[in-house]
Design goal:
Elements: E1 5-6, H1 8-19, E2 23-24, H2 25-32, H3 36-48, E3 52-56, E4 62-66, E5 80-81
Antiparallel strand pairs: 1-5, 2-4, 3-4
């Protein structure tokens, strides 16, 4: 049985809605324990879909906050993801030993 876990986007949105306050990018990353790329991707996806928004101070610090759920315009909500369990297939070589087929 595959173990399902919440997506990073769901984690970020739920954390911001539960917090009900402003948070910096670093606070979000530390709270949901994900890496920088996953957190940035989740924040910008949610902002594009009007789930969250941010206010940028003159010194460049962005403060993120959740918007009301009515403004969410996502067409599909994926709350859980299943990690890929099978290894990827290696590229097959032809009899000539090179990666391109003979002509």
């Amino acid at each position: 049985m595959k173990i399902k876990e919440p997506t990073h986007t769901t984690k970020v949105l739920n954390w911001l809605r539960d917090r009900d306050d402003f948070a910096t990018w670093q606070q979000v990353m530390d709270a949901i324990k994900s890496n920088r790329n996953q957190t940035a991707a989740a924040l910008f996806h949610l902002r594009k879909r009007r789930c969250i928004d941010c206010i940028i101070e003159p010194d460049g610090v962005a403060w993120w906050f959740a918007l009301p759920p009515e403004e969410d315009n996502r067409s599909r909500h994926l709350d859980e993801r299943v990690p890929e369990s099978r290894p990827r297939n290696r590229r097959k070589k032809f009899k000539t030993g090179v990666d391109v087929p003979p002509e």
